[in-house]
Amino acid sequence: MRFWGRNWYYIGGVLFVLLAFGMGLWGCEHMSRIRVILIFSWMGMLMHQFEEYAFPGGFPLISNMAGLGETEHPERYPLNGRQSFVSNVLFC
Questions:
Q1: How close are the terminal C-alpha atoms of the chain, in Å?
Q2: Which residues contact 39 (CB under 8 A, 6 or more apart)?
Q3: 12, exposed or middle or buried, with CB in 10 Å at 0-12, 13-18, 19+?
Q4: DSSP secondary structure letters along 39-78
Q5: How far is CA 52 from CA 9, 45, 46, in A?
Q6: Is the pTM for the entire model greater than 0.70?
Q7: Do 45 and 61 touch, CB atoms closer than 8 A?
Q8: Which of 9, 29, 64, 65, by CA, is between 20 and 30 Å from 35?
Q9: At what angle do helices 33-53 and 2-26 cross, to 10 degrees?
Q10: Which among 40, 35, 50, 49 is positioned nearest to 19, based on CA atoms?
Q11: Beta carbons within 8 Å of 8's beta carbon, 6+ residues apart
């Protein structure tokens, strides 16, 4: 669980690449239109999470400093790694 909690955005990036190849190579003509829209929407969310947290990253730090006013330890609270993991993986 510790590995998953610390690397969830990298796992999502790999999943995005696999889905992109799958949708590109095998197409989406055998799926319903709504399923294709949902898959591409999920792919967009996976890529967005990767760029927010991994490359170029910096979202939790900036969010804590600018949005929530935490200047003493901006890398810890109120938007910490566990809260980001739960809200992005479980609720998304």
A1: 18
A2: 19, 23, 28, 31
A3: buried
A4: HHHHHHHHHHHHHHHTSS--HHHHIIIIIS---SSTTTSS
A5: 9, 10, 10
A6: yes
A7: no
A8: 9
A9: 140
A10: 40
A11: 85, 88, 89
Condensed to tens digits (0 to 9), the pLDDT of residues 4-50 reads 878 888 999 999 999 999 998 887 888 899 999 999 999 999 998 89
Q: Say how far apart CA 41 and CA 83 lie, in whole Å.
A: 22
Give buried/exposed letters for 32-67 (b at 16+ CB in 10 A, else e). eeeeeeeeeeebeebbebbebbeeeeeebeebbeee
